[in-house]
Design a protein that fits this description.
By secondary structure, the chain is α/β, with parallel strands linked by helices. It has 20 helices and nine strands. 52% of the residues lie in helices and 9% in strands. The strands form three sheets. It has a five-stranded antiparallel sheet. Strands 1-7 form a two-stranded parallel ribbon. The chain has a two-stranded parallel sheet with strand order 8-9. Bound molecules: flavin-adenine dinucleotide.
C-alpha cells in the first residue's frame, strides 16, 4: 500500500484498470500472458476532457443530453487516434441534469458537464498548459451555440484532463475507457474477469469482459459474483458434514439439490445451527455479540457467512435480525401468553428460515415468501408439540397460556399428573391443527419452486406434518418420547412427492 503497509487477503477483486494493474502493480516475473510488451501493444481508448461548471442563470431550452458535432467531426477520430493532436474543432457532449431533475441546480441557476474526446496520454500534450486553453475553447464553442452569455455567468468551474485519469483514477495512458473496444479487444478478448496470471485474482470494470460503459461494468460485477464463490469453498466440506450429521432427514433431501444451492443451504444451516446451539446452551453473550456486530455492520466470523450468502444470493437482512431477536428473547425462561405471541415467536425462529431459503431457491414472489413463512411456522409448531417435555425440563413452556384454564407450570408438564396431561394433549391437538392449516396453505407456495427444490420442500413439509400425525395417534407415549417418522414411510412420502411435483406444474 502507499504507506508501505502490507495486507493479506484470500482473494483480490480489482475494479481498477487491469492494464495498469498488470503493468504497474504486478511484477512482470509473475506474468506469462500479460507481459509488458503485450500490454504496450494494445490499443487504448481516447482521453477525455471533462469540464464541470455551474452558471448563475438557467438555460431551460437545453435538453438533458446534447451532442454538438464539430464541422470536422469526421477528422476528429483521426486526430485523436492517429495524429495524436488536439483538434481546434472539438465535438462535444453536453450534460444538463437539471432538465429532468430541478434539484440538480440551485433555483435560477444551472449545472452542466461537457465532455470532449481528446487524445490519451500516448500523445505528447502538456495538459498543465493545454487544460485551461481547451476549457476556454469549449466555453467559446458553447457560448456561440447552445449557451449564450456563458462567459459572463460562470459561478463554479472544475475540469479534469487525461492527467487526472492517469494520476487520480489510475488508468494506463490516462484513457477514459481502458483498452479500446476493437473487435480483438472486446468481450472474451478483453481482460478476463478471472486472472490467467495469479490464483484468486479477479477483475471487474470497464477494462474487462464484457466491456466499458455502466451496463458493461455492472455485468462484469455480476460475472465476478458468480466466479468468486468457488474460491471461498474451502470450508464447504466441513459445512456439508455438519449438515449431514445433524439433520438426517434433510441431508437425504439435499442430494436432490443442484450443487450451488446445496452448498448455500449447508452454509445457511451452519449459521442457523450455530446460533441455535448458542441459544440452547444459554450463551446469551455470544448471541448479543452477534447481534451487536450485525446491527453495527462489524466483521463477525459466523455472520460473515450470511453476508456472503447475501452477496451471492441476495438474502434479506431482516430475517436474520428477527431470528436473533427471537433467540435472545428465549434466553430468559420462556412463557407464551397467547397464540398470537407464539405465532410471532415461530415466525422469528422458523418462518425467517423459509424467507432466507427463498432467494437461494430463486423465489422472489411476495406470495411465495408468505407461503415460505407459513411453512416455517407450521414446522416450528410441530417441533413445539414434539418437544413439550424436553422444553419443560429446560424451563421453557411454548404452549400458550390462553389454551389453559389455569397457569401451567413446568412441573405440570414433567410430572405424570393426569389432568395436566389431558390439558396438554388438548393444547397440542389445537396447535397441530393450526400447523395443518398452515401446511395446507404453504403447499400452494411449493409450486413456485423449481422442480427439484419443489420435491425437497414438499417432502420436508410432508414428513414434518407426519410427525404431528404420529403425536396424535399416541399422545401419552409421545409426551416423553420423541415422535419420529420411520424410514419406509419417509421413502413412501418421497415417491408421492416426486409424483405430485412432476405432475403439478
Ligand atoms: C465523463 C464520463 C461520462 C460517461 N458517460 C457514460 C454514460 O452516459 N453511459 C455509460 O454507460 N457510461 C458512461 N461512461 C463510462 C462509465 O462511466 C465507465 O465505463 C464506468 O463508470 C467505469 O466503471 P469502473 O468501475 O470500471 O471504473 P471507475 O468507476 O473509474 O472505478 C475505478 C475506481 O478504482 C479506483 N482505483 C484505481 N486504482 C486503484 C488502486 N490501486 N487502489 C484502489 N483504488 C483504485 C479509481 O480511483 C476508481 O475510483 C462515462 C465516463 C465518463 C468519464
Amino acid at each position: 500500500m502507499a504507506e508501505g503497509q502490507e495486507k493479506r487477503a484470500d482473494l483480490v477483486v480489482f475494479d481498477a484498470d487491469p492494464a495498469k494493474v498488470y503493468r504497474d502493480l504486478i511484477d512482470e516475473q509473475h506474468r506469462k500472458k500479460w507481459t509488458n510488451r503485450r500490454i504496450d501493444r494494445l490499443t487504448y481508448s481516447m482521453g477525455l476532457f471533462v469540464w464541470y461548471f455551474g452558471t448563475s442563470r438557467s438555460y431551460p431550452e437545453v435538453k438533458h443530453h446534447t451532442i454538438l458535432m464539430g464541422e470536422t467531426f469526421k477528422d476528429l477520430l483521426e486526430e485523436i487516434y492517429d495524429q495524436k493532436v488536439l483538434s481546434d474543432d472539438l465535438s462535444l457532449y453536453l450534460h444538463r441534469p437539471a432538465a429532468t431533475d430541478s434539484t440538480m441546480a440551485p433555483a435560477g441557476g444551472d449545472a452542466f458537464y461537457v465532455l470532449a474526446p481528446v487524445p490519451n496520454k500516448q500523445a505528447s500534450i502538456d495538459w498543465k498548459e493545454a487544460g485551461e486553453r481547451i476549457r476556454l475553447q469549449v466555453e467559446q464553442q458553447l457560448e456561440s451555440t447552445l449557451l449564450p452569455e456563458l462567459s459572463t455567468c460562470i459561478e463554479v468551474s472544475h475540469f479534469v484532463t487525461p492527467d487526472d485519469f492517469e494520476g487520480k483514477f489510475n488508468t494506463l495512458w490516462g484513457c477514459g475507457f481502458s483498452i479500446a473496444p476493437l473487435f480483438t479487444q472486446s468481450a472474451w478478448f478483453r481482460f478476463h474477469n478471472k486472472s490467467e496470471e495469479l490464483e484468486n485474482l479477479y477483475f471487474c470494470g470497464s477494462g474487462t469482459h464484457p466491456g466499458a460503459g455502466v451496463p458493461g461494468v455492472v455485468a462484469s460485477a455480476r460475472v465476478i459474483e458468480k466466479l468468486v464463490p468457488p474460491a471461498r469453498d474451502d470450508c464447504m466440506s466441513d459445512l456439508k458434514k455438519l449438515f449431514c450429521s445433524k439433520s438426517k432427514t434433510f441431508s437425504l433431501a439435499s442430494l436432490l439439490l443442484p450443487k450451488a444451492q446445496a452448498d448455500a443451504v449447508f452454509r445457511l444451516y451452519f449459521i442457523c445451527r450455530t446460533l441455535d446451539d448458542w441459544a440452547d446452551e444459554g450463551n446469551a453473550d455470544l448471541l448479543r455479540d452477534a447481534m451487536d456486530a450485525w446491527q453495527n455492520n462489524l466483521p463477525h466470523d459466523l455472520l460473515d457467512h450470511y453476508r456472503f450468502l447475501q452477496a451471492r444470493w441476495g438474502l434479506d437482512s431482516k430475517p436474520l435480525t428477527e431470528l436473533m431477536q427471537a433467540m435472545l428473547m428465549e434466553q430468559q425462561s420462556v412463557r407464551m401468553d397467547s397464540e398470537a405471541q407464539l405465532l410471532e415467536y415461530c415466525h422469528g425462529v422458523a418462518g425467517t428460515i423459509g424467507l432466507m431459503l427463498c432467494p437461494i431457491f430463486g423465489v422472489k414472489d411476495k406470495k411465495a415468501l408468505e407461503h415460505a413463512n407459513n411453512l416455517g411456522i407450521a414446522m416450528q409448531l410441530t417441533n413445539i408439540c414434539r418437544d413439550v417435555f424436553e422444553d419443560a425440563e429446560n424451563d421453557r413452556i411454548y404452549l400458550p397460556a390462553d389454551l389453559f384454564s389455569s397457569a401451567l407450570t413446568t412441573a405440570d408438564l414433567t410430572s405424570g399428573d393426569c389432568d395436566s396431561r389431558e390439558a396438554c394433549t388438548a393444547a397440542k391437538v389445537r396447535l397441530l391443527q393450526m400447523a395443518d392449516e398452515l401446511y395446507t396453505r404453504a403447499d400452494a407456495g411449493i409450486d413456485y419452486l423449481p422442480l427439484r427444490i419443489r420435491i425437497v420442500v414438499r417432502w420436508a413439509s410432508r414428513m414434518y406434518r407426519e410427525i404431528g400425525n404420529v403425536i396424535r395417534t399416541e399422545p401419552e407415549h409421545f409426551h416423553e418420547n420423541r415422535a419420529i417418522v420411520k424410514q419406509p414411510k419417509k421413502m413412501f412420502f418421497l415417491i408421492k412427492c416426486i409424483t405430485r411435483s412432476l405432475y403439478k406444474k
